[in-house]
Structure prediction request, 404 residues.
Amino acid sequence: MRRRQIKEVALREVRTRGRSKGYRAITGILLLLVVAAPIGISFVPAPSDDLREITIGIGVDVVDGFEDQLTVLADGTFELTTVDLNDTDDETVDGQLSAGDLDVAVQAPHTLIWDATEDSSISSLITAALQQSEAVRRAEDLGLNPGDLGQVFAPIDVEQQFVNDSSATEDVRAGVAFFGLMLAFLLPQIFGQFAMMSVVEEKSTRVVEVLLSQIRPRTLLAGKVLGLTVLALVQLAIIIVGLIASLLVTRVVDIPASVWQFVPILGLSVLGGLLIYMTLFALLGSLISRQEDQAQVMLPVFAPLFLGYFVGQTAVFGNAESLLVKILTWFPLTAPMLLPVRVSRDTIGTGEVALSLGLLALSSYLLFRLASRVYEFTLLRTGSRVGWGELIRLSRGSVADQAG
Prediction:
């Protein structure tokens, strides 16, 4: 009997909220954003393979062989043009630098002349060419064979190997982490406020009195949370399908197979966040009788949401192993946002994941029982909102305390 009543209440929420303009508009906006993002990225021009063009003026008495060394070192990095400055006075060189005809001028013995600021990449190239040319000159002065010297200082090919090569997937991991953070931040807000709105509407129109004559407050709360959870999961599925379709069409990123291990954790985290915050918002809705009073009671619930979101951003783009991030991963009101981020960044073990999910599930159950207890005392209250002190007393007290 009770299961059938919960199912009927849930279906009523699905029909009522699912057909609302607000639900459809939010679904459309989120779908548009996730589809438009890969499409927009696909229009960003790819980095050009063309070599950077530089012009270097070479003055009088610069060490012999410098230009040859410069040409060898610039190959594959710069499109090099050299200008002979032997018959050019200083004033003309300065004018060429100011006009941008020269990027830099090299004068004896080892002087680089710039227009206003140094270009570090060009400076490194010229310095290396000067050092090699000078090394050859000194070898000749000492009677050493320059060819043998070249063999001594010839660069070697260094091969690098990685036991765990995460460089190819690091950007994708960060993208998955941020996507999960946004979902865990937005969906509890959206559907939590739907839950609050539903409760306030039923109270203001006296529909709740009719409902409570047929079913218990706990059954009403369970059906409401269940129905809105179904709507949230439908919306989540639409968003994910739209994102995957957009990625497949645009091919802007290759998703490694290892990334899919984050999806179950993300789903469980979002589901836990929905259950906790919808229960809280429904409870807050029972404390007031008018929609105008919603802003007065929502701040305590928004505080942990925004805390988890801002700390989650630091974990996505910075340090995901700080003590604060770890603590908030275990705190049920922020765990839905921090847990997917730490999993995607590979900074959490299986034991911690199980502990965080276990605390999240336990907290959802205990919060539902607490909310159900208060719910039956506050649903039929009208007029001024129930204060926080009275709410605490109701959560601790009994029906006899309420009557007193």
